[in-house]
Amino acid sequence: MDTIFALATAQGKAGVAVIRVSGPNAIQVGENLTRRTLPARGIIFSKLKDKEGQILDEALVLSFTAPDSFTGENIVEFQLHGSTAVVSAVMSTLEVSNLARLADPGEFTRRALDNGKLDLTQVEGLADLIDAETEAQRKQAQVILSGALGTLAERWRRDLIRAASLIEVTIDFADEEVPVDVTPEVDALLSGVLSDIQKEVQGVSIAERIREGFEVAIVGSPNVGKSTLLNALAGRNAAITSEYAGTTRDVIEVRMDLAGLPVTLLDTAGLRDTDDHVEGIGIQLAQERANAADIRVFLAEENETFDGPFRDDDLTVLPKADERDSTRGAISGKTGQGIDDLVSHIASTLKNRSTHAGIATRARHRDAMKRALESLQRAIDILQQGPEFYDLAAEDMRSAIRALELLVGRIDVENLLDEIFSSFCLGK
Predict the structure, then answer these.
(1) Other C-beta atoms within 10 Å of 253: how many?
(2) Sign of the torsion angle spanned by Cα atoms 120, 124, 127, 132
(3) What is the DSSP letter of 427?
(4) CA distance 298 to 305
(5) For the segment 216-261, what is each residue's pLDDT rounded down to a tens digit?
(6) Is residue 106 within 8 Å of residue 422, measured between CB atoms?
(7) What is the pTM of this model?
(8) Residues 6 or more apart in contact with residue 14 via CB below 8 angstroms
(9) What is the span of the domain harbouring residue 370?
(10) Contact indicator for 424, 127 with CB cutoff of 8 Å
(11) Which run of H or of E encompasses 405?
């Protein structure tokens, strides 16, 4: 196994920069630069020197010996002064040492996976934590990174292995009288796992929204103040506003943190009949995006109607409160009238939805669990047909176990790894 190194902090000038080294030669690399013996697990303050003995910097040097490290390998970290020149000098010295090579993106984390320090769901949780922009995303990523989904999957797997073992014992001793009827215990184990996985599958869609962001579409006829409202909510001029109908032709997106939740606001083209081909395309796109959004805010008069059914979480408000005698039930992007109430309503609605989120957060998780569910349901159905079909039920149980092993990355995931780790930075 090669020894690898990389800058673990962001490029550019900073107070502190961290260079990480992992692999069998890591301790030797650290001792070559410090000219000192490193502790098996500890920290020293030392000058760093190149091969000619020239001082590169003074740094805190942390050392960890395998397997007690993030990667499960020997690791040395150099906490340097964060100037570009210092980082470049130390990186160049490491590169010419012939003891280590520059790491690929995500290679440190991949080694942690290969060495059993993380399962695949934890790797995904770490990627989500690095990308987290809101408090809800941070909390969600921390749950995954802690191994909660892997722990849950392992419990399901243990119960299924127990159930399959009981059935296989019955098959092995089919010609003999088995003293205990195992069917009730097997039924209880399978039903329990089935119920748990069903609940988790139902929560994936909401968990995905927390990870990727909810969408709130502002919908209405041309010139009712949609773009002005978007700008007011965003706190900047994200959309062009004018007195001319049809100004907004594309869907304009603004990402924001709303009460700790990731929300993308959508300013859509005004809904109207038009002979303008380009505007027509924009209106069609607006309708499609609005229909897919989590919440739709309709800026409309009381007697105004739109195509399509009204959903439970849709909200209708009167536009241009600044031009009305009565502002009851109205909103204005110009004056701010009603905006606080609108934000509060949207936040409350989305927070209520978030309470139904499961631990699993990705489509991959859902697909693996659905495969397990299908196999479990077949096993339960087959068991009801009698002992002569137990061998088929046992095979379906094993299929469910394999689906759960796929979920945590034990088997058949090589085709996923390159895609996952390509999103990581070099030092992770």
Answers:
(1) 15
(2) negative
(3) T
(4) 10
(5) 888 887 777 778 888 887 775 654 443 434 444 467 888 888 888 8
(6) yes
(7) 0.78
(8) 82
(9) 127-203+361-409
(10) yes
(11) helix 390-408
